[in-house]
Amino acid sequence: MRFGLLVNGLFLQQWQYHAVQQLIADGHQLVLLVVRQDDAQPAGLFQKLSAYPYRHFLYRFWQRYFFRPDAKKQRHIQDLLHGVEVIGCKPQVSGPVEYIPEEVVKRVGELAPDFLLRFGFNILRGGILDAARFGLWSFHHDDEQLIRGGPPGFWEVFHKHEVNGVMLQRLTDKLDAGLILAKIWLPVTGHSYKAHLDSLLKESAFMPAQVCRRIALNGFSAAPPAKTGKLFRNPSNLRMLQFFLRMPFRRLMFHLRQLWRHESWCIGLSRIPAGNPAGLQMAAPTPVQWLVHPDKAQYYADPFVVEYHGETIVLAEHFDYRSGRGSLVSIKVNDNFEVQEVKAPDGMHRSFPYLFVHQGKLYCLPECYQSGRITLFEFDTERNCLQHPVKLLSGVEALDPVLFPHRGLWWLMFSRKNLPGVQLFAWYADSPFGPFSPHPLNPVKTDPRSARNAGAPFVHNGQLYRPAQDVAGSYGKAVLLQRVDCLSPHDYSETEAGRIEALPQWRFNRGLHTFNRAGTIAVFDAKRFIFSLAGLRHVWKLKTRKLR
């Protein structure tokens, strides 16, 4: 596709530059640059003083002299301009609205771009909105159903939202009524606006390239916003004073909680009606048979269950804060919950031991992100060991991978360590052993409320369901059952069909993040928070390692 940029000069912010780079890397061609030229005479001192927005003085002063997010650093775009027509433009200004002159709109039309991407100017109206085949695209780094205006991501941090919506829209003549091309959600970093804005901008840069791939595969589509939220503006001086007082306290509490509150997970087993498609749909069942580790510096989590050769086999993670490493264990489904260590070919951290049966053999696909690859093993039930490794993918730090058949293809889905719990990636192949091809719309989902896998996908009444983790606000809050509406090499979509949460009467009632079932048996894990010296040492090591 051919595209153009609307900019305020020959410098872009780092995240904007990366968005253009990703478009070019995908084979799209930058053909024009509309550069704002402002010949207005600079205002005099008296005029500046009389028109200055003193109500927002603290915010403006902080932004200008102290606030330096990496994503907003300036980068010259000279290396992108080979063969690109640069058009100078003096917009016609009417209050906050600007109009691109007709001669510029006409020249843009003659160059026939497929779309324009706005990285400059103010509110635009007029012919420029339809000068490109697919219109003028613009980012909005807030959820338009909650927050209009800006600054991007600020009010989400100020009010401690759990997620921050980001929208790429096709602009229309009506304010706040752009057509939604794509929408994602990212977690809010409540203790640091700088870290949050960096993540918000950098991790949304892929959206224009992804929309182009979707257009190529499925045609152009855009939807009007369902509703629009409250209009927010730059924070007042009072709000900024509150912000300056809150943030150091939040940062301190964030680190103290990590140091002194340590997760302790416990595996639960329950029998559920065979006809229940969700198993634990809206609330987990009782009674529950629990497997609690006797040592509070260790715990069991990530249980998977499968029926194989007349037996019910459960594999789970055994984590020890002293070593900071997880290993795998097998669990006998009986009154005593007998636990045995699973032998693995090396001493790497392993968790999330996904199980499935294929052609009469039992396979295990554990998480082992430290290896930088996804490896499938055959599980020997007699010797209780992983054997015959098959490398499925390399060069990826994958979290919670699952592998399952659907409509003639095998699908490999996982999240990545750099954004744990935020994005879902899909690969597919004709065989569970590969070779695998990436889904062209990767990441197929970006939303901390339901992206990361929480168990084995299952089919009920011909409908595919995917258990997913809700990690918005905190890790391991709940499991969502996502109904997969479309899964193909060209598209992906899903809808929430149920939610599974820990019950208040449980001893472990602060979260739940894995759910699996086999027949009438459901296995899941639930957590509480404790303090242990081993946990304190483990967290301290992780924090000091990041500072090196």
Q: What would your notes on this structure say?
A:
By secondary structure, the chain is an alpha+beta fold. Helix content is 19%, strand content 40%. It is built from nine helices and 35 strands. The strands form nine sheets. It has a seven-stranded mixed β-sheet, with helices on both faces. Helix 1 packs parallel to helix 7 (207-218). The longest helix is centred in the middle third of the chain and has 24 residues, at 237-260. It is globular, with a radius of gyration of 26 Å.
Number of helical regions: 9
The percent range for strand residues is 35-45%
Number of DSSP-assigned strands: 35
Let me know the average pLDDT.
Answer: 92
Question: What can be said about this structure in brief?
Answer:
The chain is α+β, with helices and mostly antiparallel strands and 548 residues long. It has nine helices and 35 strands. 19% of the residues lie in helices and 40% in strands.
